[in-house]
Design brief:
It is built from eleven helices and nine strands. It has about 300 residues and is an alpha/beta fold. The strands form two sheets. Strands 1-9-8-7-4-2-3 form a seven-stranded mixed beta sheet, with helices on both faces. The two termini are about 40 Å apart. The structure holds pyridoxal-5'-phosphate. The site of pyridoxal-5'-phosphate (PLP) has 11 residues, from helix 3.
Length: about 300
Amino acid sequence: RVRLAAAIEPMCHREPEYFDLQDEVRARLLGLFGLSREVAPVLIAGSGTSAVEAMILAGVPAGKKLLVVNNGVYGDRIARMAATHGIPFEEVKFSWDTVADPEAVAKKAKGFAAVAAIHHETTTGLLNPIGEIAKVAHDAGARILVDSVSGLAGDAIDVAQMDLVAGTAGKCLQGLPGVSFVFAKRDALRDAPKRSVYLDLGELASKQDARNTPFTPVVPIMNAFREALLEAQEEGLEKRLARYRETAAFLRAGYERMGLQYWLPHRRLSNTLTTLRLPKGRTYPQVHDALKKEGFVIYAGQGALEKE
Ligand SMILES: *Cc1c(COP(=O)(O)O)cnc(C)c1O
């Protein structure tokens, strides 16, 4: 259904038909995650990283500091975004196999306007305690900015507790890649500085609220996203999380029977990703190519994990 929905007749993105589609996608996003109108769902034409970058640019008021919780490639990426745009930041780092410790974040968070954290660190499959991190950020008077690009609709997150949450159509929401989005508390957008022309959340939100768009959206991918959101609603969010959880349990039982070793203790893993060590005496390309012949695609570890 999702792939067929991308094969629509051409639709002009300046016509009411497109704005009906845009309104529907925004409303369905709010509905799926049980959010009120206090939250603006802001759509962006771009991969998940564009949503994360737009969130970081909007979420740190001018002259204020960002604290980045970093325990993987995606935490690192947020630090690089802040550095690239000249946003003052510091990091609280944990090793890649360690869950971010809310107490350590609490100790450091005073004086920061915002804390950025990754819900599901896709580098390793590690799930961070995002609710607790949000709480200590708020207790310290900071906003919480969450990269949940690979978390939303795969693992539980209370989006309403967060100030800004970045997500994408093409992961656990089961749409196609090319549309991403940020859930933004309208309050948090009020003092959003202008740091980018394209990735300007405030501008995108006000144009979309007025049934408009500043730039050309990816119309066929948006239509596919609408279909994916319909499917998600039909399945139900809780049932989707359960399906991923049960699928992971099934796969992990099989990995254990085969004697494969986890890279991370499996209780730290998300519902959607399992990191395993290479079997003894096998290289990654051997394992990858043999599985691909059977119709399975696996993914190498990132950074230093590539050869483990
Ligand atoms: C996939 C992912 C992203 C963004 O990836 P894109 O390739 O830009 O879609 C960002 N953060 C996390 C945690 C991810 O898993």
